């Protein structure tokens, strides 16, 4: 199912970027849903642990490991969604109405800078994750391989980088067509 390029201002590049943007939005929606489901799972684990402590007099084995795992999934996969939904905090400056051209350039460059930051953080985290993998580190109680925790973080940063790059291209091409 292809859409004609005329619908997107005649540019095949813009049509491709638009389709990629829609795909990334769908992907980040799914990741956010799975991440928030994991957060609900973490809450359930904590509640069960509290109830078990009251009833059984002891804590549930592995509750901390499972809670950390779920929170890592939720936090790491919510970041790409925030970029995709453009839900980050922004500040409107007083002079924005007077210097529209300058702020338009800044608005176009922000996703590129965010992509650069996320790529840099991915690079730094990759090294640490590979170190953890080579050591074979596992969680304290359930022996969950720590690379799985890092997998959530790395995938979230990689997808965030791609979302920011696609958003940058979309803004650049939209501005070019105007």
Highlighted features:
single chain; 4 helices; mainly alpha; 178 residues; 76% helix
Give a quick summary of the entry.
This protein is mainly alpha-helical. Helices cover 76% and strands 0% of the residues.
Describe this structure in words.
The chain is mainly alpha-helical. It has one domain (7-86, 94-177). It is 76% helix and 0% strand. The chain has four helices and no strands. Helix 2 (63-84) packs parallel to helix 4 (146-177). The mean pLDDT is 88.
Topology of helices and strands:
Elements: H1 12-56, H2 63-84, H3 100-135, H4 146-177
Helix pairs in contact: 1-2, 1-4, 2-4, 3-4
Subcellular location: Cell inner membrane
Pfam families: DctQ
Subunit structure: The complex comprises the extracytoplasmic solute receptor protein and the two transmembrane proteins.
């Amino acid at each position: 199912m292809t859409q004609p390029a005329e619908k997107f201002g005649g540019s095949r590049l813009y049509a491709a970027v638009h389709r990629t943007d829609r795909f990334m939005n769908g992907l980040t929606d799914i990741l956010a849903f799975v991440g928030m489901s994991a957060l609900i799972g973490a809450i359930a684990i904590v509640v069960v642990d509290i109830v078990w402590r009251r009833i059984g007099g002891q804590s549930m084995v592995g509750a901390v490991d499972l809670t950390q795992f779920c929170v890592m999934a939720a936090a790491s996969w919510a970041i790409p969604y925030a970029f995709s939904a453009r839900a980050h905090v922004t500040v409107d400056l007083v002079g924005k109405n007077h210097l529209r051209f300058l702020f338009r350039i800044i608005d176009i460059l922000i996703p590129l800078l965010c992509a650069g930051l996320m790529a840099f953080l991915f690079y730094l985290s990759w090294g640490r994750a590979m170190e953890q993998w080579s050591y074979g580190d596992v969680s304290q109680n359930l022996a969950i391989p720590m690379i799985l925790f890092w997998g959530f973080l790395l995938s979230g940063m990689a997808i965030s980088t791609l979302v920011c790059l696609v958003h940058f291209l979309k803004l650049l091409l939209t501005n070019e067509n105007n």
